[in-house]
Design goal:
With 76 residues, this protein is mainly alpha-helical. 50% of the residues lie in helices and 8% in strands. The model has no long low-confidence stretch (mean pLDDT 96).
């Protein structure tokens, strides 16, 4: 619920809060403790809040992945 609230009530409105970042990092840490080996940032706005240097768990930002693949495709 909180992850969803942060996306729609903050990030979609361009509101970047340190407390929300800490919430996301706590969720990522919980996932790591539960055995996660990586995290997919599957909403375009999450990358505005959480960066790879914030955690040692690999993050896959789907916005970046799509943009890179689109750029590669366009020059091929």
């Amino acid at each position: 619920t909180e992850v969803n609230r942060i996306i729609y009530d903050e990030l979609c409105l361009g509101d970047i809060n340190e407390s929300s970042k800490q919430t996301y990092l706590a969720v990522i840490d919980d996932l790591k403790k539960a055995g996660a080996e990586a995290v997919i940032l599957g909403c375009t706005e999450i990358g505005l809040l959480v960066k790879q240097f914030d955690t040692d768990l690999p993050l896959y930002d789907t916005t970046v992945i799509h943009a890179e693949k689109a750029a590669e495709w366009s020059i091929e």
